[in-house]
Every structure is written in C-alpha cells, then in structure tokens.
Amino acid sequence: MMCEECGKAPAVVHFEQVQNGRKVVMNLCRECAEKKGVLNFLFQPAFSINNLLSALLGSQVSGAPVLEPSGRERRCPVCGMSYRDFARAGRLGCSRCYETFEDRLDPLLRRIHGSERHVGKAPARSSGAAKIRRELEQLKAELAEAVAKEAYERAAEIRDRIRELEKAARGGEA
Known about the structure:
Layout: E1 13-19, E2 22-28, H1 30-36, H2 39-42, H3 49-61, H4 83-89, H5 96-100, H6 102-113, H7 128-148, H8 152-173
Antiparallel strand pairs: 1-2
C-alpha cells in the first residue's frame, strides 16, 4: 500500500483518529507521518512512561483547569505546578502536589491502577506472611486510634485480633 499523502513511498504507519465525531484513517510513509506529527509519541527512541501518562491525561487536560475559588488556576503552593503542567510532564513536582490535585488524581489512579490506594508490589495471591504483616500494621494503627478515642471495648477486640495474627505469624515461621 502506498502513502496516501505523497503517493510515492510505501505506507508504514496506519493511523486512526476521531476528529469532530468522524473516524479518520490514514496510511502514511514514515516521512509524511513525521511531517504530520503522528510519530511524535509512538516512535520515540525509548519508551517513556511520562509520555504514556501524559497521553492518558490528555482527555482530562482538555477540560476545564482546576480552579481556585478566586477563578485562578490551582497551583501547588510548594512547587507552583499546575495540573496542566503535570499532564504535560507526566509527573508531579513534589509530594504536596498529591494533596493539591487529589480531586483529579483519585479518579485517574482508579482508572489506571484499579485503586487509588497503593497496595504494595506483591500480588494479592502472594505469601500469607506479607498479608499478615500488612494486616497487623493496620490493626495496630486502629488500636492506637481506638485508645485515643477512649473506645476501650473496640480496642480490646483489636488487641485480641492482633494477638491471634501474631500467633499465626509465629506458627507460620516455625
């Protein structure tokens, strides 16, 4: 198949895009694809996760920017990054950006990872020891919170569950 743009070279890029509700299909040679900007993202020398994330964010960025009550675009108070800057760069500027753009990041993380909460590197079906350790950490935090709220009955239940899990963990290691 020949390039639909120049008609001289063989087409090596098949490109489909929706423009104004219509599907546009192009078969282009490498040179014509470069001229049209089709190769910018797809054929870079090295794969870049930043480009992938930026492409995923593209649809969100084209919408309205995140605005402050004053009507100005929201920026991180620490590094000054805007959500549009994040979408272009594919990474946040600092740890405070997570709080600043939380309302936009939560749905994005759910869409990409299936959850907005990091659950660790190990798959869910991995060893029980890691799962028990994680549950113990969570229960200890809940215990401290229950004691601080003076919910002693709940604290006793949590303490008993912690003891059960610690006993199971020791039994699993021996």
